[in-house]
Structures are given as structure tokens and as C-alpha cells.
TrEMBL record:
Ranges for domain Transglycosylase SLT: 72-189
Polar residues bias: start-end ranges: 29-46
Region entry Disordered, spans: 23-57
Name recorded for this polypeptide: Lytic transglycosylase domain-containing protein
Length: 219
């Protein structure tokens, strides 16, 4: 009995020691499963085409090409070349068109122009008759669509004042651009052969520089 009891006790001790050691041994870490699927790349949010952009803060990153839809629409209504109208907007993009800045400058210089097409009050008031008579020149800084429409109809009216017989090599669009910049009287003089002065020639040079990208913007 004594020997058998010791055998039992020894067996219990061995099992206890083995059990205790088993608790001390580190457990193997769970196997990490690596996915073979590629992580989808974040997609860039689609940029709306220029025609669908909100004009809420249009002046923060203004580019005439953003208003290509309005240019095509107004040019069609006024029967003028949309490429010319777009080029005029590029020519007139030599200063910031932030509405508040324009109004601040106008308070300093009352005869300053307004809007993205830089139209003076007299030209706007003459152009709006029988078209958008209830609109006001003071609206131009906040409403680029109105500025584009007014510029288109102003070009239309200038076209009606080009002499039928011209001695100048300037094209109709070049004459209209000069008329937009220098007035109808000077435009008629250029059509009859007078040479543009430095300011008018500079405007014409800018028109040539902006012509190709203007055509691309409206196609």
C-alpha cells in the first residue's frame, strides 16, 4: 500500500508540474491572415464641367473658360462669334474681378468699368435697351452672366456700325475687338484705314495671343 501510494503521489506531482510549466510557456500567436485583395484607391471626386460650376465664389479662381456655356449662349443670341466674345473676356482679365474690390475702386474712380467684361455705364445703358432694360449697371460685378450677355449685344451693335466699304486689312472680328476697346468712332476710322495707336495695338496683340485658347474654350 505504501509503495503504491507513493507512486500515485509521484504521478500527481508530475502532472501538476507539467501543468504548471504549460501555463508558463508562451502561447503561439494567432496566424495573421493577409488579404490578397488590393486595397481600393480613393477615387477623386468628379469635377463638374465649367458649365455646371456654381458661381457663388466664381471670382476666387476665375478663368473665362469657366463661363463657356454662357458665352456660347449669349453669342448665339446676339449673332456674334463666340470665339471673339471669349477672347474679349480674356483680354479684359487684367485685373481682379472680386465684386467688393471693383466697387471699392469705383468709389475712387467713378468712371471705372464693372464686371468681367469691364463695361462702362454708358455702354451698358445703351446696350440694355429693348433687351434687359430692367437690369442695372451696378449688378455687373455680382452677375458674370449679365456681363457676358451685355458684352455680346454690345459687339452686335458695333458690328452694325462697321462701314460697308472697308479699306483696312483688319478682319471683322479684329475691328469689333478694337471697337470694344476704343469705341465705335475709332473702330470706323480703323475700318477706313487709320492705324491703331499704341493702346489699341496692344489690345489687338492680346486678342491674337488669346485667340487660340478662346476657340478651344468654346468648342
Amino acid at each position: 500500500m505504501g509503495k503504491r501510494w507513493w507512486v500515485v503521489v509521484a504521478g500527481v506531482l508530475v502532472v501538476g508540474v507539467w501543468s504548471a510549466r504549460g501555463k508558463d510557456e508562451p502561447q503561439s500567436a494567432p496566424e495573421t491572415v493577409v488579404s490578397t485583395k488590393s486595397t481600393p484607391k480613393p477615387t477623386k471626386s468628379a469635377q463638374p464641367p465649367p458649365a455646371e460650376r456654381s458661381v457663388g465664389n466664381w471670382y476666387d479662381d476665375y478663368d473665362p473658360a469657366h463661363f463657356a456655356v454662357q458665352v456660347r449662349k449669349s453669342a448665339k443670341k446676339a449673332a456674334v462669334n463666340p470665339q471673339l466674345l471669349m477672347a474679349i473676356l480674356y483680354n479684359e482679365d487684367y485685373k481682379p474681378h472680386n465684386p467688393e474690390l471693383e466697387r471699392s475702386w469705383q468709389r475712387i474712380k467713378p468712371d471705372a468699368s464693372f464686371g468681367i467684361a469691364n463695361m462702362h455705364r454708358a455702354a451698358f445703358d445703351e446696350t440694355k435697351r429693348n433687351r434687359f432694360a430692367k437690369r442695372q449697371w451696378e449688378e455687373l460685378p455680382d452677375h458674370p452672366d449679365l456681363a457676358i450677355e451685355a458684352a455680346a449685344w454690345h459687339l452686335h451693335d458695333l458690328a452694325n456700325r462697321i462701314p460697308a466699304n472697308r479699306s483696312s486689312k483688319l478682319t471683322k472680328d479684329e475691328l469689333l475687338a478694337l471697337g470694344y476697346n476704343a469705341g465705335a468712332g475709332n473702330m470706323r476710322a480703323f475700318a477706313r484705314g487709320a492705324h491703331p495707336g499704341p493702346q489699341a495695338q496692344s489690345y489687338l496683340n492680346n486678342l491674337h495671343e488669346n485667340w487660340q485658347k478662346s476657340g478651344k474654350a468654346v468648342t
